[in-house]
Amino acid sequence: MRILISADMEGATGVTWPADVEPGTEQWQRCRAMFTSDVNAAVSGFFAGGATEVLVNEAHATMRNLLLERLDPRAAMLTGRHKELSMVEGVQRGDVDGVAFLGYHTGAGTEGVLAHTYLPNSVTGVWLDGEPASEGRLNAAVTAEYGSPVVLVTGDDRTCLDAAGYAPGARTVAVKTYVSRYAAVCRPPAATAAEIADAAQAAAAGARRTEPARRGPFTVEVEVDAAHLAGAAALVPGVDLAGERRVRYTAPTAFEMIRCFKVVTTVIANAVEERYG
């Protein structure tokens, strides 16, 4: 049984504030340990449930946040940026039996701790085939295309509710309760680790490859907070303006959908000016 853990940081235990996840800050250094604790708990649970291989794919910012020296030695870690499928790199091997979204969060423009989609600001909403789309929903479409079901999702309570829409069969663990975008009622790592491990062990029972989904084409709409950002995104071939602050594109497969999304958000990020956005 091969498990892929896509490990993001905003939904990790104890994380509520931008500095908690911004590489190089004092708070980031502190929160890396709690992030690693969450991942180790999932690794432990999956092995207890019968996994034979667990690959942890770093999925936050520089993708160099987890403490390798503290990682459960039974797991392997894919660290670093510039990967073909970014947050779900590794699923395209075609041999992943189950996927876990660890430390995930809600999408841009919605309620949730550190809610966003790819960019911390500028993007105010994303829709996949007309449905509000978090990173979880976008990535789940990709994993389904390779026949790898999402079996576990952790994050705040709003993230768990979001997961019910794209992975209704997945186990969920709310490591914190949403209060505002920058505040949450948090439980200590010892408590969340135990719950994550139990959920991962139970989730292993659902880790079973399925027939690869063929649900394309996929239409994505991205709304931004300034008209010039939409104009910049529309320079990408195949991406069209769909309003003053919105762009739209259609991709034949989820593989192409997520890769185009990465290009669109990269262009948007580079069109933001320091003071005016």
From TrEMBL:
GO-annotated molecular function: metal ion binding
Database matches in InterPro entries: DppA_N, Peptidase_M55, Peptidase_M55_sf
Position of the signal peptide: none
List of residues binding Zn(2+) 2: D8, H60, H105, E135
Active site: H116
Keywords for the protein's UniProt record, in alphabetical order: Metal-binding, Zinc
A Pfam family assignment: Peptidase_M55
Residues holding Zn(2+) 1: D8, E10
Name under which the protein is recorded: M55 family metallopeptidase
Organism: Streptomonospora mangrovi
